[in-house]
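Whiteboard transcription, Tuesday session. T.W. wrote the structure tokens on the left side:
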């Protein structure tokens, strides 16, 4: 059942609305990361003096250049690390478009979903980003203690988080927060397994950028399946 939901979603990746959500999420992500990088390097250039007097060395004029390049390289590394979670958060703002495309193709008998305010969607997306980043920082520390089990820990932790949040987003747009919580609590194992299916490709560069869209589509199918029981 879960694999059916997933392969249906993969089969719809050519949908123009899916591609539109991906492009908007990536454009906002790249723009934000470039802005932060420029601001950070400018701030370092502003704070670090052109020349500096060091004990035993004397006056040097290369410290500002070194600090600029160090901050620039640091931001490039951080951009690579943050690309996926930030893209996921931005894409989350537009996930209603993905769910609408899925329902238009597979559930045309449904009435239009109620409009979800942008403020609420943005809040949930940022909360999702905060949870993923926070838990993965904790998991990163634990990786040093679990050795070869680290990938499994990564999948289990992110599978739980992705399943919880994506099902919540898919269900809330149709039945509200309280009913979404009830449905999730009654289908925890299935939701966790579907989330793990989303978490495994997170380790694959470029493919991981598609996960927010695949997750939204897969969990839209999953929600309609469990809600009809």
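and on the right, the sequence the group agreed on:
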């Amino acid at each position: 059942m879960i694999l059916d939901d997933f392969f249906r979603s993969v089969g719809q990746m050519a949908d123009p609305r899916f591609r539109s959500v991906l492009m908007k999420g990536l454009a906002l992500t790249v723009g934000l990361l470039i802005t932060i990088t420029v601001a950070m390097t400018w701030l370092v250039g502003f704070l670090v003096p052109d020349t500096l007097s060091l004990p035993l060395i004397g006056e040097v004029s290369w410290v500002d250049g070194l600090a600029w390049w160090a901050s620039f390289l640091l931001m490039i590394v951080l951009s690579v690390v943050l690309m996926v979670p930030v893209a996921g958060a931005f894409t989350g703002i537009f996930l209603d478009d993905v769910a609408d495309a899925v329902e238009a193709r597979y559930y045309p008998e449904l009435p239009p979903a109620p409009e979800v305010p942008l403020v609420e969607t943005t809040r949930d997306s940022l909360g999702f980003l905060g949870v993923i980043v926070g838990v993965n920082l904790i998991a990163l520390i634990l990786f040093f203690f679990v050795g070869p089990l680290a990938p499994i820990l990564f999948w289990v932790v992110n599978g739980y988080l992705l399943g919880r949040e994506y099902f919540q987003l898919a269900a809330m747009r149709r039945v509200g927060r309280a009913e979404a919580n009830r449905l999730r609590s009654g289908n925890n194992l299935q939701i966790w397994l579907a989330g793990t299916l989303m978490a495994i490709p997170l380790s694959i560069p470029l493919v991981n950028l598609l996960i927010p869209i695949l997750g939204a589509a897969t969990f839209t199918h999953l929600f309609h399946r469990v809600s009809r029981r």
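Someone added at the bottom: The helical segments are 2-11, 16-47, 63-93, 95-106, 118-146, 150-186, 188-199, 211-227.
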